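Limitations

Structures in this collection are predictions, not experimental determinations, and the ligand pose is part of the prediction. Treat each record accordingly. The example that follows, with zinc ion as the small molecule, is included so readers can see exactly what is and is not provided: the inputs are given verbatim, and the output is the predicted complex.
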Amino acid sequence: MADHPRYSRNVALFGQAGQTRVAASRVAIVGAGGIGSHVAQQLSHLGVGALSVVDPDVVTTSSLNRLVGATPQDAAAASYKAVIAQRMCAAILPEMRIRVVTAPLLDQGAQEAILACTSVMSCLDDDAARLDLIAICCRNGLPFFDLATDTGGSNGNTWYGGRVMFSGAGERCPLCMDLINQSALQRAAMSVDQLEVDATIYGVGRDDLNASGPSVVSLNGVVASLAVTEWMVWTTGLRSPNALVEYRGSVGASFIGNDAPRPDCYYCRMWPTQTATGF
Ligand SMILES: [Zn+2]
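Predicted complex:
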């Protein structure tokens, strides 16, 4: 199917061999929300062979400002975000194999769906879950792109943007690149009892706090497009992917990060010594 006329404009950029590599790819999208829905849409148009979409969350009315493919009827029905992604991707590319998991990341079915893939797009908005996914990828030698948007500041000094980080062979991860916030690190080290105490102190779960922050469709779309472009150049061999791309929406520009990872990273050390990396 990689030589289908629908891909002629892709082939014009990265060649028939590149399109064949795209079609042979199986990609796990972990988090099918504001960022992941864009990624799912774009990978379908690119012609990826198979997707695993993992997300236990359902659509709410407040998701409709940014969730690609979601309708008010989906919010009323509390449809799973992963199912909405499946519906959208199947409409774009009916022959694509799509595996949907509406269970949490640490559920066995979710991990099996991820490990069935050749690369991972981490589109999570919770750093504690992000650490769990990094561990799964590193332990199993699975190349991953980590995507995030972030906002901050106040009183006229608001900043907003995002970033994309790539790890193809355990050379870096969001932890050793200092991209994980400290409270998530503390939570990752907590027992279940400690997490309950933490939730009690803060009144609501940190996830709920995250969910109430700013999240805007265009910023998510830029970060998703940067990530899919890095995935595309890596998969097709068009060029080497960047280790880190930062998007600063508040100044309207993207920058390539040059910081070296901290050595001897707990997560990156898990990477198997002999793995196939990409193609
Ligand atoms: Zn690391």
